[in-house]
Design brief:
The chain folds into 3 domains: 250 residues, no CATH class; 226 residues, no CATH class; 126 residues, Sandwich (Hypothetical Protein Tm1070, Chain: A). The two termini are 67 Å apart. The protein is mainly β and 675 residues long. The N terminus is likely disordered. It contains 3 helices and 39 strands. Strand 24 and strand 25 form a beta hairpin.
């Protein structure tokens, strides 16, 4: 489909140049110059994008009467948008930008009436963007037809109808840089040579970028049109009609998800030592979450350049071959210009990022916050594929961890060294960890997977950024990445720390610079909200006392012992217990004082819950709690019985309380009818 769009565009240009080949023809005999907009493809812009490229604006002029030897009339052309223009500024201090107005589609390669002119002329940019450049009319006889050619001076060499100009510099400049101010870009001093009635003059405005986030957003269910307004400073040189084209539609470009593998226990080393000895905490991590980035529309994710353009070596290439006016390029880059070919154009220098060329392809960012202390955090080097049966477990790297061919549409992305590191000096890809080489997925399977550790050296935040290297612009795609953890349990020293680690997922790089600048392209607003990525729960003991009473002359004594001190070297623990009452005359939850190791908490129902009868669940914030209840008539004179409390597997670690009664040997899947 992408190739089809390019062919359609090429055919449209060819049809246009059937007339434009003689667009330098005079002969109109006093005809009125008329100019109108020609409809162009309208791209979908990402609502999160600050530097979204709008569609080209093309103006077709016919009629008028060129005057031999005279100055070509000039005009200023201003494009206004409904949000800030964000085309890259090229660093000369005067807001000269990469936005460019082209006259007669230079470099398109189509055959003109006079060689090396019009569409066959090389691009030459006016070096004085703030004032423009003058042009003069030279009439050349081609057969019996007079052809008007715009030249750089009144006395340059005669243009030969068979061979063209003596030198390319004899022709007038055919490219004009835009000067950005707020939501406007202006092309100053553009000479408009009237083509006469038998031909057409073409003006193309391209490389205009806009802060799409400032246009009111957009949603997955609809889009917002982006309207431009054109103004000619000299309506006699460039009369415009219907000068308010739609140049794009804004729509949400990204939805995200974080599928957590569940909570981990502070007391359970990850990965579990029960794995084969070869898979240890030193070389293995455990799946914590699958992070998903989904396109809002088919072309939301883009490579740096369009890899299908002849001459490109990959989607990350810096080869400046996206240089055919009117080309439809599926990439972050637009119409690219080689600074070395632009002569004295002051705004373009060899040190400047070439106009139209993006710094990188679409990047996807995960910002982790509140990473529990003691946890080692890893992310997949590439996007991952999931287990086909459950869709919850990481099954491997996309395409086996090998970047597909540049012409492939297989979704592929790789971790990069930073969100603003440019591809200009080569792709800044991360390299896989040489120590942690395996992961345990959500199904308990151990698989080899290249990962990179991003554990923060200070603080509790870490960032991972991946760049899209291959994509299919004609399909809605989801790129998924794995997040993995490892840690050594030490609940007695509160390691790892209990808590919830979150992740914010967005495009990258994110920025608060929403006006034109020399900053990176693309860049985005962060519209993300925090999602759960890592959950570390303290290891609790949950005790069920199935019957307690303080009715009909009976009372119940209860005791909870902290048995974490033992002869086996267990690290002592301490913590409170929450007593939760359910039944007749229930009372609110009661929290005990901290129960030290090797001590027992004792209480009476008559004190804690007078006239109560029912059951109680004690949630103790330490391991190795054991309970005992003693029911008797008051004073234990006639009747008494005692029992040990039952232990419920912690629902916080097992994903909820199971309804089936099984013992712990069955994977903690149900109630533990043990003491």
């Amino acid at each position: 489909m992408a190739d089809l769009r390019r062919w359609i565009t090429a055919l449209a240009i060819l049809a246009l140049f059937t007339g434009l080949a003689s667009a330098q023809v005079g002969g109109g005999g006093g005809q009125t110059l008329q100019c109108a907009l020609q409809a162009q493809p309208t791209p979908t812009l990402r609502a999160e994008g600050i530097t979204e490229e709008v569609g080209d604006i093309v103006i077709i002029c016919t009629g008028g009467s060129p005057v031999a030897g005279g100055l070509v009339p000039q005009t200023n052309v201003t494009v206004s948008l409904t949000s800030q223009v964000t085309s890259r500024l090229l660093g000369n201090g005067f807001n000269w930008s990469e936005a460019i107005l082209l006259l007669d589609e230079p470099g398109s390669g189509l055959v003109p009436l006079i060689p090396a002119t019009g569409p066959a002329a090389p691009l030459r940019v006016c070096p004085t963007a703030q004032t423009g450049c003058v042009a003069y009319t030279q009439i050349v006889a081609v057969g019996t037809s007079p052809v008007a050619v715009a030249t750089s001076g009144p006395s340059v060499g005669a243009v030969n109808p068979a061979t063209g100009p003596v030198a390319a510099s004899d022709l007038a400049f055919n490219g004009y840089q835009g000067v950005v101010s707020g939501n406007q870009v202006t092309f100053f001093g553009v000479p408009i040579l009237a083509p006469g009635t038998s031909a057409a003059r073409v003006l193309r405005i391209t490389n205009v970028r806009v802060n799409a986030n400032g246009i009111g957003g957009g949603s997955a269910s609809g889009s917002i049109p982006v309207q431009a307004s054109l103004l000619s400073g000299n309506p006699f040189a460039l009369p415009l009609s219907q000068a308010t084209p739609i140049v794009g539609f804004v729509q949400a470009g990204l939805t995200t998800s974080s599928a957590s593998a569940g909570a981990f226990g502070q007391c359970n080393t990850q990965p579990s030592p029960s794995l084969a000895p070869a898979f240890t905490t030193s070389n293995t991590a455990v799946q914590a979450a699958i992070l998903g980035f989904s396109e809002g529309f088919g072309s939301s994710f883009k490579t740096r350049v369009d890899p299908t353009v002849p001459g490109q070596t990959s989607g990350q290439s810096g080869v400046l071959v996206q240089n055919k006016p009117g080309g439809v390029y599926n990439g972050e880059s637009a119409f690219t210009v080689n600074p070395a070919l632009l002569g004295i154009a002051a705004g373009f220098t060899a040190a400047t990022t070439p106009p139209g060329l993006a710094d990188a392809g679409t990047r996807l960012k995960a910002v982790f916050n509140n990473i529990p202390a003691g946890v080692h955090l890893f992310v997949s080097l590439y996007n991952i594929v999931r287990d086909a049966g459950t869709l919850t477990a990481v099954a491997g790297s996309a395409n086996g961890g090998v970047q597909p061919a540049s012409t492939s549409t297989t979704a592929f992305a790789q971790l990069v060294t930073g969100e603003t590191v440019s591809d200009v000096s080569g792709f800044p890809g991360q390299t896989a960890s040489t120590t942690v080489v395996n992961i345990v997925n959500a199904l308990g399977q151990v698989i080899a997977l290249p990962v990179v550790e991003i554990t923060p050296t200070s603080g509790s935040s870490a960032t991972a950024v991946w760049e899209v290297l291959n994509t299919n612009p004609d399909q809605l795609e989801t790129f998924r990445f794995g997040a993995f953890v490892s840690y050594t349990a030490s609940p007695g020293t509160n390691s790892p720390a209990a808590g919830t680690g979150t992740v914010n997922l967005s495009f990258a790089p994110t920025s608060t610079v929403t006006s034109a600048s020399s900053g990176p392209i693309p860049r985005f607003i962060d519209t993300s909200t925090a999602k759960t990525a890592i959950q570390i729960n303290i290891c609790r003991t949950v005790l069920l006392f199935p019957f307690l009473t303080n009715q009909l002359g009976f009372d119940t004594g209860l005791a909870i012992s902290n048995t974490s001190t033992d002869p086996f070297g267990t690290t002592p623990q301490a913590g409170t217990c929450d007593l939760n009452w359910y039944g007749a005359n229930s009372v609110p939850k009661f929290t005990t004082a901290s129960i030290a190791t090797a001590t027992t908490y004792a209480d009476l129902v008559s004190i804690r819950a007078p006239n109560f009868q029912g059951y109680m669940i004690a949630v103790c914030n330490f391991q190795f709690a054991h309970g005992f209840a003693f029911v008797s008539d008051v004073g234990a004179r006639n009747l008494a019985m005692g029992y040990l409390s039952l232990t419920i597997p912690d629902p916080g670690l097992s994903g909820g309380r199971s309804a089936s009664n099984t013992d712990f040997a069955a994977g903690n899947s149900g109630e533990g009818l043990s003491h």
